[in-house]
């Protein structure tokens, strides 16, 4: 990460004259909004880039700027005219009132490479192809019935996690590492079925690709200077990693095709996600190429694994910092599953307080603090401000979740605020949008929730948790790492002790 920031500084220092020359000729739409939407003063050519480069945690920098300039703010980021939205009211304007205009994604060089030319779900432009993919998600891939069909996979992998923790009894465990490995294993089994060749290699490559994608690409701010990504070697690095991931997923798809041609009688409820996509491909009602199938599987991996693990990680960290919350959540889960000695998904709906803990975690730590970037498809008036076509729009869900006008004591971790509250993350309460809202809302919500609930319930049921000796809650590290999705900067290392009523660990 330090490398990426210093690359930016080197860029500003040495390439500025070049930028001056090219950008004056190629800059488009940018300045149109200047007199219309408030924003900080801009420098020639780099605009406001110097103001956002002060920290690598963009959501925090943007919140500080919004506090000075307002909930709708214009920034000129190099050549890219950008509007940042930081209040629930403005978010509702973008994602509800004018959702059709703003449900586009900007063209990003790195996304072109890693998403098979934007034929995945997340970066595909609004249109028939994207609509069809979303339909496949709701009806087939990520439906409630499909998610339920993966229940035994989740239960088995979470139990594995519990057993692994138990096997290191008496030692501090790197919980982050183990939880990330577990969610990748769940997604891999749901996507590919029982262990398939190269599964481990695929997981390693995808997580590497996710890391590189979170880096700083000059072309994101200076689209006309794409060649600098080539000179810096970043484009080559992404292409290399993606080439390897493509080779592996290509083999997996090929193996699935071969086994389908031998056995055509697979029950729909036994299908893995690659099977589902290949069946849609075979049906032929909607043309899906092999690359389209691969692009969708990549989305499910990058969307499905790290996100849930990140949420579990932050929830455990917050509970360690707030022992009374942990005690209450633990009492709830132990009371509900006392007779069984283990948690399964049949009774998990009883854990009302745990659900509040998860909501509170996602309020303070939305996995994508700026959601995914949107683009305005045609000039549009929003609350009296004119946003020109092609403007990039960032929605600061992190700042919105901490808006003092909507959340009393916004910085406090207090799950009680969700007890007896109807506020939910399904995209109708714009003060709480960790999964986004509108047409582009996360289609993996039903898949994500049990991936967060079950591990947390099991971790709380089977173990008591504390910090390794010598570390106190007050000095516990809660820093965030740089990235599009925001993980903890340092892994969560905790000391577990087994619970006597557990049938697994005692
Ligand atoms: C805690 C877990 C998760 C969180 C917090 C989360 C959050 C988000 C957010 C904020 C967006 C962008 C919404 C917007 O632009 O308005 C998104 C999009 C998306 N998510 Fe998730 N997600 C999670 C889990 C998942 C899972 C499990 C899957 C798939 C299995 C998934 C697949 C996707 C896809 C494909 C998109 C792109 C949708 C589109 O552009 O049409 N996500 N997610």
TrEMBL record:
Compartments (UniProt record): Membrane
Required co-factors: heme
Keywords noted in UniProt: Heme, Iron, Membrane, Metal-binding, Monooxygenase, Oxidoreductase, Transmembrane, Transmembrane helix
Membrane topology category: Single-pass membrane protein
PROSITE patterns linked to this entry: CYTOCHROME_P450 (PS00086)
Pfam families: p450
Xref: PANTHER family: OS06G0641600 PROTEIN, OS08G0105600 PROTEIN
Family per record: Belongs to the cytochrome P450 family.
Protein name: Cytochrome P450
């Amino acid at each position: 990460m330090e490398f990426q920031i210093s690359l930016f500084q080197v860029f500003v220092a040495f390439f500025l004259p070049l930028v001056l020359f090219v950008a004056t000729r190629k800059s488009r739409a940018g300045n149109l909004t200047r007199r219309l939407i408030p924003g900080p003063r801009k420098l020639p050519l780099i605009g406001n880039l110097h103001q956002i480069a002060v920290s690598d945690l963009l959501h925090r920098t943007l919140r500080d700027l919004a506090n000075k300039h307002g909930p709708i703010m214009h920034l000129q980021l190099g050549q890219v005219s950008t509007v940042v939205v930081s209040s629930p009211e403005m978010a509702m304007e973008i994602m509800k009132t004018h959702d059709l205009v703003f449900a586009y994604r900007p063209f990003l060089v790195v996304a072109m490479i890693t998403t098979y030319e934007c034929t995945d779900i997340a970066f595909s432009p609004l249109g028939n192809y994207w609509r069809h993919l979303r339909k496949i998600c709701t009806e087939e891939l990520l439906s409630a019935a499909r998610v339920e069909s993966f229940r035994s996979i989740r239960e088995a992998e979470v139990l594995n996690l519990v057993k692994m923790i138990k096997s290191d009894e008496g030692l501090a465990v790197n919980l982050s590492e183990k939880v990330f490995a577990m969610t990748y294993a769940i997604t891999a089994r749901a996507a590919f079925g029982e262990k398939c060749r190269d599964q481990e290699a695929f997981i390693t490559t995808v997580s590497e690709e996710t890391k590189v994608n979170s880096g700083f690409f000059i072309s994101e701010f200076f689209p006309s200077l794409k060649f600098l990504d080539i000179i810096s070697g970043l484009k080559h690095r992404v292409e290399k990693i993606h080439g390897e991931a493509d080779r592996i997923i290509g083999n997996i798809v090929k193996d699935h095709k071969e086994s389908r041609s031998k056995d055509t009688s697979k029950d729909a409820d036994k299908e893995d996600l690659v099977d589902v996509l290949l069946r849609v491909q075979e049906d032929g009602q909607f043309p899906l190429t092999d690359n389209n199938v691969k692009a969708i599987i990549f989305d499910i991996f990058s969307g499905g694994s790290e996100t849930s693990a990140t949420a579990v990680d932050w929830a455990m960290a917050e509970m360690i910092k707030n022992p009374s919350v942990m005690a209450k959540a633990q009492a709830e889960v132990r009371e509900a599953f006392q007779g069984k000695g283990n948690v399964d998904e049949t009774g998990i709906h009883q854990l009302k307080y745990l659900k509040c803990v998860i909501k509170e975690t996602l309020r303070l730590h939305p996995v994508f603090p700026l959601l995914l970037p949107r683009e305005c498809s045609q000039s549009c008036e929003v609350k009296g401000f004119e946003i020109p076509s092609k403007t990039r729009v960032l929605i600061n869900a992190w700042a919105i979740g901490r808006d003092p006008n909507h959340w009393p004591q916004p910085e406090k971790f207090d799950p009680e605020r969700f007890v007896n509250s109807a506020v939910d993350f399904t995209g109708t309460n714009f003060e709480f949008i960790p999964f986004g809202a509108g047409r582009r809302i996360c289609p993996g919500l039903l898949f994500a929730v049990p991936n967060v609930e079950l591990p947390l319930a099991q971790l709380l049921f089977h173990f008591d948790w504390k910090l390794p000796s010598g570390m106190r809650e007050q000095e516990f590290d809660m820093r965030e790492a740089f990235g599009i999705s925001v993980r903890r900067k340092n892994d969560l290392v905790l000391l577990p002790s087994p619970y006597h009523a557990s049938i697994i660990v005692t």
